[in-house]
Amino acid sequence: MRIIRDSKVGEYAKKYSQASSSVKNWRAVVRRANWKSFEDVKQTFRSADQITVPNGSKVVVFNIAGNAFRLVTSIHWNRGIVYIRRLLTHAQYSKGDWKNDP
Question: What is the C-alpha separation between 14 and 9, in angstroms, rounded?
Fold first, then answer.
């Protein structure tokens, strides 16, 4: 898979240093993946969730660093692209404000 806004992941890893090694591992796994559906993601990351946000689009959320962080992505299955939306602490994710971002 190709990661779009990959540099953003690096920025998040610097901001949240305790997530750094988990983020690096996630990137390595995703780059080698060839997902065609959410079911493929679940075979790789069993804790991943697919969520429909208020605008109707679906995002895939990955648990990072033992569920201390959540990485929110949009995946374009037909193009093999994972678009990074944001990395949030568990508390930020739980507030749900991120669901209203475009």
Answer: 9
d(CA 62, CA 89): 12
Domain of 11?
2-100
Domain count across the chain = 1
Confidence of residue 102 (pLDDT cuts 50, 70, 90): low
Alpha carbon distance 82, 3 (integer Å): 5
Alpha-carbon distance of 96 to 94, in angstroms, equals 5
Strands 69-76 and 81-89, how do they pair? Answer: antiparallel
3 state DSSP class of 27? helix
DSSP label at residue 99: G
Q: Write down the pTM of the prediction.
A: 0.90
